[in-house]
Amino acid sequence: MFQRQKQSECDPTKSLQAHVQTTYTISYTLKAEVKMFVKYFLLIALVQAVCAQQQFDVLVEFGTNFSTLAINTENEINELYHFNADMVREFNRELLLELGRMVPEMREADSSFQQQIAAADGVDDECREYAQDLRELFLLFQNWDIQDCAYYAHAELEEDSINRFLPYAITFSSENTRSISQVVESFGRNNAVTDFDALVTELDGEWEYYQTLAISFGDFLFDEILAHADVADRVYLDLVECRETAIDLQQSDQEYILAYLDSNCE
């Protein structure tokens, strides 16, 4: 009996079955733990992917906002460019009209003066020819007077046209264009991996800067355009005064020559 029991305990078949059962239990438990860890790491990876996507979406939103603001601001600058050009064009037209009144008036006065020389009584040919020579000399001075009026009017208006609006508009447009690449520029200055919040903080500050710039510079450029009017009024009044002075000088020249004719150049 004892031997049979001992033999049963040493039965290799039963020992193998027990080993297999134990191994299966351990393997099942290990697989369950592995699955649990895999799910855990997949969850972490998913969360990280979602966070990374959200961070990327923030940068894309910043880029879109900067680009939209830059385009809208550039359109406003272009409108101000056209407005400024229209103002300058109108001022030049007014000056041209004033010169247009000046030249025909002086030409008509000169034509009438030539008739006076030709019709003068008691004047010999030599004196009449001398009067014509004097007329041509003074006519040269009169032409210089006209040129001076046009030159100074153009110089003053050109200085205002070039220096009042354009330098600021060019600077503003250049700075506004820079905003399009602001996200990339800020990305290059910050460590987005270890401190993404610092990058976002900088972009928030830049966004506020460009918004303020768009409003303040837009108002400034508009005021610059309106300031053309003060200069144009002054230049126009100076041109009117110059025209009147030139006409008075022409009349004085003609009276001087007529005085020679009255005495037959004696």
TrEMBL record:
**The protein's name in its UniProt record:** Protein TsetseEP domain-containing protein
The lineage's top-level taxon is Eukaryota
